[in-house]
Amino acid sequence: MRALKITSNSKRYQAMIGTGGIGSGMFFRLNGDHTLGREESRSGYFLDRKDYCKLHIISYYVKALLGADFEVILLGKVGDDTFGNKLLNDLRDIGFSMDYIESSPKSQTLFSYCFIYPDGSGGNLTTCDSACSEVDPEFIRKSEKEFAKHAGNGIALAAPEVPLAAREEILELGTKYNFYTAASFTSEELQTVSPDIFKKINLLAVNLDEAAALVGKRCDENDTRQIIDTTVKMLTEINPTITISITEGKKGSWIWDGNSLTHLPVYNVNVVNTAGAGDAHLSGLLVGLTAGLSLKEAHQLANLVSGCSVESEHTINTDITRDVLRELDDKNGNKLSENIHSLLED
Fold first, then answer.
1. pLDDT at position 277 over 90
2. What b/e string do you get for 9-46 counting C-beta neighbours within 10 Å, with b at 16 or more?
């Protein structure tokens, strides 16, 4: 893997400890671009694509772009089954720390059913009774010595597909040991989550639908800026220092840095599959901040990483390297700052 050109000593953080979904899935290509109806029957066909869950996707790009000397510690469970055993081998080969990944004999590995429209957009349905559902606060606390080891020098990541209680615990540990805390949630969770959880988050990453769910609005009944402005107002009243990332698919992404809101359009790319693009965007933000970039520069890098991610038919584009990122920016007119260009130099 061709990581960014950054020395270990110049990294703002030296490790990431994260929890979230570890699993697999399959893709189903729908016939017709119109949104699937509640009671509609629709034909289609399965695609030969590799699907991964949130913690795996986010952590992959962090590890690939920050290099072997950046430690990534995953906290999670898989089932003692064919999917789980394969994932354990895959994660080990990538170079993740495996000390806190357990194989559960009682449950199946998390599985996701992704549906794709002809234009490349889509969504997914994910099982909620998998081994990931066994990840609880006690399990998270087993890793406290890792937080102590990297105190003041790490990222704590709380991603969906494990119970909220476990994610609150990793944010609690992150706060206790002065980590940079990052989190994302599903639209369903954001309708009921306690506002207090946002007090423990430095970076919240959501898409527009999730932001709308948080503020009790519908994307099809409110304009984008109204939803975003309402989201920023609500969250900053709870946590004045929170940073907010909101992605809007092909319409680009927004970042609130505590003072202003910045929008970036998407890159001009050949969109093959948008599944995992939001997770890739969050990865890019974490990579950029770790590399010492400003938040606005990290937003540029996140936009670039997510742009590359949608060019792959799989939810992880394993071809992404600093060379691939540089080539995409060259094709789109060199939109990146000089600081990012130096990270992508050959």
1. yes
2. eebebbbbbbbbbbbbbebbbbeeeeeeeeeeeeeeee
- The two three-digit tokens of residue 187, written as one number: 């639209």
Residue 334 reports pLDDT greater than 90: no
CB contact burial 299-330 (16+ within 10 A = b; e otherwise): bbbbbbbbbbbbbbbbbbbeebbbebbbebbe
15-19 and 71-79 strand pairing: parallel
d(CA 14, CA 39): 49
Measured distance CA(28)–CA(42) in Å, rounded: 11
Between 3.10.20.70, 3.40.190.10, 3.20.20.140, 3.40.1190.20, what CATH number should domain 12-34+43-183+266-344 receive?
A: 3.40.1190.20
Q: What is the mean pLDDT of the chain?
A: 92
pTM: predicted TM-score of the whole model, two decimal places: 0.92
Instruction: Judge whether 103 and 130 are in contact, CB under 8 Å.
Output: no
Q: Are 23 and 162 in contact (CB under 8 A)?
A: no
CA gap 169, 98 in Å, rounded: 19
**Of 327, 294, 282, nearest to 55 (Cα)?**
282
Tens-place pLDDT, residues 139-183: 999 999 999 999 999 999 999 999 999 999 999 999 999 999 999
Tokens found for residue 160:
């969906």
Query: Residue 220's pLDDT is what?
Result: 67
The residues, any chain, with a CB within 8 Å of residue 82's CB and separated by 6 or more, are: none
Whether the pLDDT of residue 222 is over 80: the answer is no
Distance CA 2, CA 96 (A): 17
